[in-house]
Amino acid sequence: IYLLSPYLIAVISAMILTYIFYPLYCWLHSFTKNKDLSAFILSALLVIAISLPLLFAANTVVNESVQLFHRFNNIDLGIFADKISEYFNGNVDINFYSKELLNKFSVTIAQHTSDFLLSLPSKLILVFVMLFVMFYLFKDGKEWIEQLKNELPLRTHYKENLAKKFDSVIYAVLYGIVITALIQGAVGALGLWIFNVSSPIIWGIVMTIFAMLPFVGPYLIWLPAAILKLAEGDINNGIGLLLYGVLIVSTIDNVLRPKLISQKAKIHPVIVLLGVLGGLKAFGLIGIIIGPLILAIASVFIELYILEKKQGFETTIR
């Protein structure tokens, strides 16, 4: 575990992606008739399919953030300064404080961008590890899984029950994440259109991508847009978008995601919620899947233990 810890997330990500897309590998292999070629093509395609949307979202946000900064920097907040000066019975230079805040914000963004660029080599290594592991899992994973199942000290029907739970939880989590993100993106785009924000469809796509990422979320799009509306004097649209974002866009996932996952996987919403939060804390992004999976499989083992204990007790009485 110590040796693998720097690459644990890449390995687990590769295992989950391989498990999900193994039917696609089988379909591809039926055409190529070559395990190595099929495994390499699908592994490369998956890495590209994951990287491109993230790069698109990051590029869009960085470009728009620069324009947003300049728009903020050119706004005269004199009207607000007068009102606040009246409220505090003094002279408060809002323009000065806002410029200071924006300068600090720009320095923070620059620092985070620099840290991200410096960490790119290590991230590329993680991507390479994930690609390498996926290649061999697609190629030889089925045999390894069968060997593992044979070695598990469980009865055959218990193994089948465990495999079914594994399947249902993975697909339920993915289903919940994707459907919730699509709904959030659509609802967010609708709000941007209602409150007169430019390019609502493009920003809706970016919000959909961000909605799949924990600790990021659609608020990175609608919140700056609402603040900009307020700063430009468009009070009605600014307050409307702010309330819409807080009460609808950033709340809907807390209701939808646990419900969708629990219904699909037939596990209690509390287990889903604790699994997602605990998984994120322990494993990062991939913890959204691993957390509920660990708790669901743990619950299966507890059920099996209780069942075996009950059967042993009944046998003893007889």
Describe the structure.
Helix 6 (156-194) packs antiparallel against helix 10, helix 6 packs antiparallel against helix 12 and helix 8 (219-231) packs antiparallel against helix 9. This protein is mostly helical. The chain is globular and about 75 Å long. It has helices spanning 8-32, 35-73, 78-88, 94-118, 120-151, 156-194, 200-211, 219-231, 235-249, 252-265, 269-283, 287-317. The mean pLDDT is 76. It has 12 helices and no strands.
Layout of helices and strands, plus pairs?
Elements: H1 8-32, H2 35-73, H3 78-88, H4 94-118, H5 120-151, H6 156-194, H7 200-211, H8 219-231, H9 235-249, H10 252-265, H11 269-283, H12 287-317
Helix pairs in contact: 1-2, 1-5, 2-5, 2-7, 2-8, 6-7, 6-9, 6-10, 6-12, 8-9, 10-11, 11-12
Number of alpha- plus pi-helical segments: 12
Strand fraction: under 5%
Largest sheet: none
How many E strands? 0
* N-to-C series of helices and strands: HHHHHHHHHHHH
Low-confidence parts, pLDDT < 50 over ≥5 residues?
none
Broad structural category: mainly alpha
Overall pLDDT level: 76
Helix content: over 70%
Q: Tell me the span between the first and last alpha carbons.
A: 46 Å
Shape: globular
- Return Rg in Å: 25 Å
In short:
The protein is mainly α.
Task: Give the tags.
12 helices, 318 residues, mainly alpha
